[in-house]
Design brief:
The structure holds 2 protein chains of 2 kinds.
Chain A lengths: L1 H4 L5 H26 L5 H19 L3 H20 L6 H23 L6 H6 L7 H20 L1 H9 L1 H6 L4 H19 L5 H18 L3 H26 L3 H26 L2 H8 L1
Chain B lengths: L2 E12 L2 E12 L3 E5 L6 H9 L6 E6 L5 E4 L13 H6 L13 H13 L15 H13 L5 E4 L8 H16 L3 E5 L12 E6 L1 E6 L1 H4 L2 H8 L4 E5 L2 E5 L5 H7 L12
Parallel strand pairs in B: 3-7, 3-8, 5-6, 6-7
Antiparallel strand pairs in B: 1-2, 1-4, 8-9, 10-11
The chains are: A mainly alpha, B alpha/beta.
Chain lengths: ~280, ~270
């Protein structure tokens, strides 16, 4: 027992496992809306877009959180607005805005001549290096996201499923889009130091996809996704301590293993469905 | 009869392109109106403007503030793999006055009652992908009905379904009309649907004609609406539109292709 609890004797580990668990839950929650809107690539894209904000905030001498957050929010809103045009689509909108934003960051670096932020930490995170303040920030964003989804559950669901009729039925779909953009930006900004930009993209997608494989009900998908994200954050960091692996990738690999299991379970379940139900599934 | 929605010289556009131009139209209680016109003629925009989702750039749209409006989009506008059951999809339209995510017992009872009326009482727990095309259409109608509308706007409710399903859906829509709900639907089916409705609006960005099918389904109105000559026959007092396609041989004779000419026959 002492061996199992040994890592919890270290403050850095307690902070790391707390922040990874919260970040996993947060990604699982917001990722459901991201995946169902067909914007799975937005996490990856926004991470690149926020790079532009990070460089700009460095050049201007303002807080990283403020610069990257504002930049990311504007990028997310632009993506959601452009994605509304069916002739363009979400994937192209993400490609245009995020690469342009990344390019702006690169231009600013070429002008100012240096940028001292640690790129490896930005890409893969440094979960073992987080402090109590980081835990509190990620916790606050997780709490705010949970409260927002709770209070705007119906509007967000209707907007995600059928924005056209939601609009006609009195839901402010533009407000819902901005709400989602705000949550997504806050998530990426506060999780960059924990999981890193590359791994955020994975954690935004894998838990919701596992939820989708296991259920046909939206609220169950939401619960499963949050549970999977939370589990992966906790188990990934815990296992990485004993295996001496990098913690961020260990979190994502845990999710990948769960994906394989969920995929196998859903395949077996599909085989056991009556033929008529399968026909209906296939269309 | 009082107007539920009235268009007064309404012009709408997307970007620079006008979609509706100078439209005057009244939709009153008890109406059962079909809107016909070619693709891109503004039929969906007309419905969306009536529902309040599109703002005119000129003219005005007056609505009875006490009349709830239900909107039924084309079935292909949503992802039917989206993880919701039939009941969850229907309950989406109950968004007023409740903060918590879960539906109240009354909301669930109302949704089940509407599903029962539409002959889907045993499908509430099914995933929406497990439904036939006609049943998917009924889910959208049920969702709109949960708003207790006095005006139901339906965008091509019979597109992409077989003849039997089309008959079932139209039978249902007639029943709703008999219960006092004003209906406005768009359709491309002139003979199977439009000719059987009490009132038609022929639209091609502007209103070409409004009236009973026997008055507006005429070669002149149809040519102005569709931009192509169409023949109209009478069968049992009903107009029947006949589409004739030129034989390839005949087409060549009419517009001979010259050597070196690569354009379409004018």
């Amino acid at each position: 027992m002492d061996t199992l609890l040994e890592p919890f004797g270290y403050a850095f580990f307690r902070n790391a496992i707390a922040v990874a668990t919260l970040a996993g839950a947060l990604c699982g929650l917001i990722g459901v809306y991201v995946v169902l809107r067909g914007m799975s690539y937005i996490g990856h894209g926004l991470s690149h877009a926020i790079f532009g904000g990070a460089v700009a905030s460095y050049a201007l001498g303002v807080s990283f959180y403020l610069g990257a957050g504002m930049w990311g929010l504007v990028s997310a809103v632009l993506i959601l607005l452009i994605a509304r045009r069916r002739s363009i689509g979400a994937d192209a909108a993400i490609g245009v805005i995020t690469s342009a934003s990344f390019a702006i960051g690169a231009v600013i670096i070429s002008v100012i001549g240096s940028f001292t932020r640690n790129f490896e930490a930005a890409l893969f995170g440094n979960v073992l290096g987080v402090g109590t303040g980081d835990v509190l920030v990620v916790g606050a964003v997780t709490l705010a996201a949970g409260a927002t989804v709770f209070l705007r559950y119906r509007q967000l669901l209707f907007t995600t499923f059928d924005p056209e009729v939601a609009d006609v039925s009195g839901v402010s779909t533009a407000r819902m889009d901005i709400t989602l953009a705000l949550l997504l930006t806050a998530l990426i900004t506060v999780c960059m130091s924990v999981l890193g930009v590359t791994l955020i993209a994975a954690m935004l997608v894998i838990p919701p996809v596992i939820g989708r494989l296991l259920t046909d009900s939206f609220h169950k998908m939401l619960w499963i996704s949050v549970a999977v994200g939370t589990f992966c954050g906790f188990v990934g960091v815990y296992v990485s301590y004993y295996l001496n692996w990098a913690s961020g990738p260990a979190v994502v690999l845990t999710a990948a293993v769960l994906f394989v299991i969920a995929y196998a379970v859903s395949s077996v379940r599909r085989r056991s469905l009556p033929e008529a139900a399968l026909d209906a599934h296939v269309g | 009869m009082s107007d539920l929605v009235r268009f007064e010289k309404v012009t709408c556009r997307y970007g620079r392109e006008p979609v509706l131009v100078n439209v005057d139209l009244s939709l009153a209680e008890g109406d059962f109106v079909g809107v016909v016109g070619p693709s891109g003629s503004g039929k969906t925009t007309l419905l969306r403007a009536a529902a309040g989702a599109v703002r005119p750039i000129a003219g005005r749209i007056l609505r009875d503030p006490k009349a709830a409006v239900g909107y039924v989009p084309q079935v292909e506008t949503v992802n039917w793999y989206f993880p919701v059951t039939v009941r969850e999809a229907v309950l989406m339209s109950r968004i007023d006055g409740r903060v918590v995510p879960w539906a109240s017992g009354q909301d669930v009872r109302d949704a089940d009652e509407v599903l029962d009326r539409l002959g889907m009482s045993d499908l509430g727990s099914r995933h929406i992908r497990e439904l036939s095309g006609g049943q998917q259409q009924r889910v959208f109608i049920a969702r709109a009905m949960l708003r207790r509308p006095r005006l139901l706007l339906m965008d091509e409710p019979t597109s992409g379904v077989d003849v039997r399903t089309r008959h079932d859906v139209m039978h249902l829509i007639h029943e709703l009309h008999h219960e006092g709900i004003a209906i406005v639907l768009t359709t491309h089916d002139l003979n199977g649907i439009a000719a059987h409705l009490p009132k038609l609006v022929c639209l091609n960005r502007e209103v070409i004609a409004t009236g009973r099918p026997q008055d507006v389904i005429t070669p002149d109105v149809l040519e102005r609406t569709y931009g192509a000559p169409l023949e109209v026959l009478q069968h049992g007092g009903m107009p029947v539109v006949v589409e004739r396609y030129p034989e390839p041989e005949e087409e060549r004779k009419v517009v001979p292709l010259r050597e070196g000419h690569h354009g379409h026959p004018a």
